[in-house]
Amino acid sequence: MAASGPSPWPANAVLDEAGLRVAGLEAEELAVRFGTPLLVADEAHLRERARAFARLFPHPLYAVKAFTSHHVIRLVLEEGLDLLAATDGEVEACLRAGAPPSRIVLHGNNKSDAELRLAVAEGLRLVNVDNPEELERLDGIAREHGVVQDVLLRVLPEVGAGAHRAIRTGEAGSKFGMPVAEIPTVVARAMELAGVRLVGLHAHIGSQVLEVQPYLEAVDVLLDLLVELRARTGFEADVLDLGGGFGVAYTDETPLALDELAPALLARVRGGAERRGLRVPHTLVEPGRSVVGQAMVTLYRVGVVKVREGVPIVAVDGGMSDNIRPMLYGARYRVAFASRPRTDGPVRVRIVGRHCESGDVLAPDAELPGVPRPGDLLAFAATGAYTYSMASNYNRVGRPAVVGVEGGRARLWLRREDAADLDRLEVARALPRRAAPLEGVEIRPARPADAAGFLAVYREAVAEERYLRAERVVRTVREARRVLRRSVSDDQAFLVAVEAGAVVGWIQIVREPHPVVRHVATFGMAVARERRGRGIGSALLSEALRWARDRGVAKVELSVYPDNRAALALYRRFGFVEEGRLSGHSRKPSGYRDEILMGVWLEEER
Ligand code: LLP
């Protein structure tokens, strides 16, 4: 286990001469099964952290920004935590995960009308108001909806704490909240407004805070302010929200001990309020990092290893796209071998990512028992918070998969982002494309006489079991003849490619029958195995799209298996983009198979 100090690794992680195991599972096995980079969550650890907060504090909120996934949101809700959302997007994630609106609080320093409307319309428990202007807008919106919205006011306590300038929020000059001196006027105004009900004050001093003291100072600031507010406005708070920011261990830090923090904070609030003759408010806290941070590790596979100026430079298959924290905050992580450790002697290595920047350094100075070699697996500790949630797609790198492990079982929480996911925002327009005429190949509407030839190509493709949904071709030649009798109409086009008198490919494009989807056509096609790769598919598709355009079809859609690379490439050449994926939509003898949905718009204006 860890060399010194408190361990940053998950509670159910074991590091020994065999490498890393989490909750009984070999990291190497997980890496092979789910690919790398991979975030591995110790689910029991995460659950225990949530439970500890629920046990020690009366009203904890989980700050979902630290790690936002439905699974984690549901898990913390189950354990009794409510949710803190920073944006409408985070509110949506909470709602979609099934959180009752009454368990969601919204904060944010620049809330839009749309965000405030969402909060009011959904009936969120609290809105933490950042500034006087927002208070007025929220009041208007609440009155429009005929409701009274409970609110907190965000106070800038001028108590700063936190591991890095960028994550200290409570200091003078911060963009967050209102200075103490401004609060009485805002409170007086809030008390006049019919659309809001002021229930308390909020302060968040910063993030990755490792001492209790700054929190106690913030409590005193808020309580002194409450004394002044009572005198000047008669306001008494029901709620004091002390924010989050509780620090965790990344390398050798001693994390903020919750069982010391909680009693100290609660006693300061209670004792301080009583001493000042104030009503004792409910204390809220908003942990993010300290719930998820140490519950997860990131696994990376080592690629290239170089030595530069005597320092081994170890390149891994992730980087600034899956963890920007080292570059943004100078964050440091404990690193260990997750596969069998090299033990050729303690070294300091620089672990770099795969992105096209010199700044893409995940660990400038990691201590390891030996120099990693290509193929080794490395683990970074305590990567649960603000890595995945701050991930980007720089260099078109997809976000990693996230897997939860518990009791020797692994469950995928978030699948790896693939090229299709990265394409999903593209708006597809058909590319102007006329396939070059193919020597000796004719593309024409099918005729009844093509029935046997069509069925032969169809049967062959079905028998390959890779391309088409069908498992058997049940249609008889006679039935096929009937279909081919009217091969081109307003509703469909059935085209064949003919070479030396034989059918070598076909395409059937059909308009959707239902009125609301009449503008859409879908198609199926196949090319004889021996004739593939010569442009016959392109020629067929080009003609089919021409038919569609001529008949006023606005959009063409299809479904294709993800491993049918030739078809995917063909469709992309015509401008189709991937619009979705149905997981396990097909059940084939070989098992469940995903289908990729693609589409292309033929109309210029939409
Ligand atoms: N409450 C408020 C109002 C906050 O702004 C935050 C975090 C939290 C609670 C939760 O703080 P936590 O317990 O997770 O420290 N990206 C940075 C951290 C930014 C924190 C933003 N606010 C990082 O990677 O260190």
Short recap of the structure:
Helices cover 28% and strands 28% of the residues. By secondary structure, the chain is α/β, with parallel strands linked by helices.
Low-confidence stretches: none
- List how many beta strands DSSP finds: 28
CATH superfamily of the largest domain: Alanine racemase
Whole-number mean pLDDT: 94
Distance between the first and last residues' Cα:
60 Å
Please name the CATH topology of the largest domain.
TIM Barrel
Q: How many separate helices?
A: 16
Number of domains: 3
What is the gyration radius calculated from CA atoms? 30 Å
Structural class comes to alpha/beta
Main pleated-sheet profile: 9 strands, mixed
Tell me the strand percentage band: 25-35%
Query: Which range best describes the helical content: under 10%, 10-25%, 25-40%, 40-55%, 55-70% or over 70%?
Result: 25-40%
Shape: globular
Small-molecule binders here are: ligand LLP
CATH class of the largest domain: Alpha Beta
In the CATH hierarchy, what is the architecture of the largest domain at level 2? Alpha-Beta Barrel
